[in-house]
Amino acid sequence: MENSSDADNNCQENIDKSRALYIFYSSVVGLEFILGILLNISVIHLFIFKLKFWKSKTIDIFLFNLVLADILLLIGLPVKAYNFQQCSENKVVCKVQLFLQFLNRGASIAFLTVISIYRYYSVVHPGRRKPLRILKRSPQISICIWVLLGILTIPAMLQSFIRCNSNEHDEEFNYVVLLREIVFFTQILIPFFVLVYCSIRIINRLIQRSVGDKTKLRRAMFLVTTVVLVFAVCFLPYAITRAVQLKMNGLVMKEEKVAVVKLYDGFLCLSYLNCLLDPILYCLSSSKFKKIYMSMYLPFLLEKQQPEISDDNADE
Max alpha carbon distance in the chain (Å)? Predict the structure, then answer.
């Protein structure tokens, strides 16, 4: 393994060669932070002070936790933007940023998956009371998700040296690293297949139940399909390049590794876009929530809108 001074020199050399690219990455992350934090904070404000989510429907509690996870993930983005431009970092700050990234990205994906499963049973199997009764215990399920992910995130914090910058030297493989990578790929790939399955079944069920209301059907199908596409675009390229990066570790020339690292960092920036799109897809897709949101923050647009067919039932 390289010593720390050699790693810093290699990192600086790689950064200098791609200064413009990493400044662009840093700018993208900064923009995602500003837009995402404003949108998510405004949404969570409505959940707390207008909807009083703890007294609302089951799905509102899951949505609140989804937005909360996105906010906590966004908090670490300024550090990530800084690390895209610098090779040196405070190791304590680095570990905190990585903890936020692993924990809250996992929580965001977990709550997204639970919401899809809840909607699947509500639309496709409304008569199966036992699964719905379990899913309606949303406070207990939410606590279990946070606790479980907190435990699974511990391996990311146990390494004696944890990378904040992808341009640094290769990690020494051990069981902690293996466990961390298993958690990483599991929390992306399994939810993706669950989302695809639930979405296909929901669309088929909506088509069967449609009795002439084509507008509502199209909107519901568009929402379900968009959720899967956003997940695929944000997370699958990120996971695939991570797998390639791990496979190439120690097996190829330095220049090839640098090219994959640049691609990985670009897809990492893209993955943060999910935090910006979640509130739009899951909260503002509800006619009721959208009306409250726009009347409070964008009243000038509400006056121009035509009456809409409510799609709240398709959302749940």
Answer: 69
